Amino acid sequence: MHDLTDRLFDFISASPTAFHGVNTAAKLLSEAGYTRLAEASAWDLVKGGRYYTTRNNSSLIAFRLPDKMPTGFMMTAAHCDSPTFKIKENAQYADAHYTKLSTEGYGGMIMSTWMDRPLSIAGRVIVSTGNGFETRLVDFKEPCAMIPNLAIHMNRSANDGQKYNPAVDMVPVYSLTEGLSVNERAAALAGTAPENVLASDLFLYNTDRGIRWGDYISSPRLDNMQCSFACLEGFLASADSASIPVYALFDNEEVGSLTRQGADSTFLADVLDRIAEQYGADAEKKHQLYAASSMLSCDNAHAVHPNHGEVRDVNHSVYMNEGIVLKYNATQRYATDGISAALFRLVCEEAGVPFQRYANRPDLKGGGTLGNISEAHVSVNTADIGLPQLAMHSAFETAGVKDMEYLIKASRVFYSKSISTHADGSCELV
Predict the structure, then answer these.
(1) Which of 74-83, 238-247, 358-367 has the lowest mean pLDDT?
(2) CATH number of 2-82+220-429
């Protein structure tokens, strides 16, 4: 278990942004024998082959092909972006004493948790190649920024319910390491001169490495790199079947998914169509393939808070280290219904892992996931699942040690299965 958590922390540390998360997953897939495909090139897929492709370098889809016409697709989808602060194009400004960064919030973070922490900068720069450009990832790695709190002596109401103005309270101070500006340092890390950088997408991130403390782990970006890691582990360890296992990582879930690389894009549908066409599937056969497919939308869930049990739904309370969470919502903010829940229960029973049922308290509006968003483009039975954690959207989150292993085991079984559909509302997992 220690080895598993160390691998998770390595995965998270190597993934300070969605670009790096996709790059980290791509390296693991390549090491496992998966071939990278370019969306802009023709695909000549070999039956029995292993492949992956990326879009925007921040979303990824991997798959394995059976030797014969597949029966359907067995898919998991997670997201690799996290709440943070995006650095604006004109990155910094200064007064006589401080250099500060111009930023804006990305996603719904708990702002106070970002204060008084060592922060670094990572992302991508777009470098001119003369008659074109290429993308290069950069990671400053060492702390170079801080968002300082105002001392209690100057803000006596700090503990009485503070409201944060992102344009005032959350402005980071930047250290001119070796006298280099943000743009100059990013260019140097990209191996080019500042004048060759055409554009950039840079973000702040918490440099703290994850820790294990007894049965718990705490780390930046557990939401949702923990699910991303566990599903990838299960995908790589799964057995071949008559279906096509598909591992999907999407960007921009934290800001609504409505981008060309988000779950509300055609990315997944485009990839599945290209796969089906390699088998000679016509429109009729594609409909049959989707009807015998399933998806697990994997995103962490809210464990009962030890000090705030009043915000839970009493009959749908979930706890860390007590199993994978199956999420329900009557207004379909979670995609789970009776059919997808039954299928996932069979998977958990075969994997020998526990699961828990979660629903928000009726008077509290919970967050959504990419499940139903993705379903609007690829309509398959979908269950929303996740791993229970505390302090979701904090700069440092907490989860259980055991639950990640449960998801690895369950996803491995799920990927190794196929669905045989006899009639609407009934199926066999084989």
Answers:
(1) 358-367
(2) 3.40.630.10
